[in-house]
Write a structure and sequence with these properties.
binds 3-methyl-2-oxobutanoic acid; binds sodium ion; eight-stranded parallel β-barrel; alpha/beta
Length: 265
């Protein structure tokens, strides 16, 4: 496989080729999921929960993401590596530039930023400075205190319209990819039709251009929290870690995952 590049993401969308993404935090799993044909790998701040055992992503630091990005980088050969901007590391353009530069120097090809609004200026600032950005809308876990929990977003008409506006705005600001988390399937499908960058869903239905899951979740590990509806245990059908990742990649490519049982209407 030839290594993924940022411009190829838009090509994939134009060609209708679905993108399979997983989170990853270390070199061993990075090698396994890259070998299984994963397209995109995210060093998510979900590491705060699944690696560090915390109850939210808020305590994760720039040092944490930089460390895990270096670890994952060493295991990858073809997948495109995305690093999460942790809580408040993107509160200003200057702060964001500092953190994002560290992540690209650690081997990431792109950084992920939660939200729109004041983040639009940050996205623009990074993109103008040669730092590709993945946006993240819908349920943004760094907003957990304001939201009062992890809930499906964009359910009523006004919220759906706001989400579609935000999606157009992050694309306009220069984002090259858009994660949609916990959004009703029809709303995510509408956003996907609205923008010419690829959308990557997690709990956002089958109408997105790609899918992402937390590695631990798709391997059936119990996080100690209630398992969200969109999570599927691929180890059960895959029989081994490589088998699970192959099953996931195939299911995403062929549009078999997520189905209605793993989506919100
Ligand atoms: O941190 C993370 O794992 C994420 C994905 C769930 C999109 O942001
Ligand atoms: Na995240």
């Amino acid at each position: 496989r030839s290594p993924w590049t940022v411009p190829r993401l838009r090509e994939a969308k134009r060609e209708g080729r679905k993108l399979a993404m997983l989170t990853c935090y270390d070199a061993g799993f990075a090698r396994a999921i890259d070998d299984a044909g994963i397209d995109l790998v995210l060093v998510g701040d979900s590491l705060g929960m699944v690696v560090q055992g915390r109850s939210s992503t808020l305590p994760v630091t720039v040092d944490d993401i930089a460390y895990h990005t270096r670890c994952v980088r060493r295991g990858l050969s073809s997948a495109l590596l995305v690093a999460d901007m942790p809580f408040q590391s993107d509160a200003s353009p200057a702060l964001a530039l500092q953190a994002a530069t560290r992540f690209l120097q650690a081997g990431a090809a792109m950084v992920k930023i939660e939200g729109a609004g004041p983040k639009l200026e940050v996205i623009r600032y990074l993109v103008e400075r040669e730092i590709p950005v993945c946006a993240h809308l819908g349920l943004t876990p760094q907003s957990v205190l304001r939201l009062g929990g992890y809930k499906v977003q964009g359910r009523d008409e006004a919220a759906a319209a706001r989400l579609r506006e935000d999606a157009r705005a992050v694309a306009e600001a220069g984002a090259e990819l858009l994660v949609l988390e916990c959004v009703p399937s029809p709303v995510a499908a509408a956003v996907t039709a609205d923008v010419d960058i690829a959308t990557i869903g997690i709990g956002a239905g089958p109408g997105c251009d790609g899918q992402v899951l937390v590695l631990h979740d798709m391997l059936g590990l119990d996080s100690g929290h209630r398992r969200p509806k969109f999570v599927k245990d691929f180890l059960a059908e895959g029989g081994s870690v490589p088998g699970a990742v192959l099953a996931y990649v195939d299911a995403v490519r062929e549009g078999r995952f997520p189905d209605a049982a793993h989506s919100y209407d």
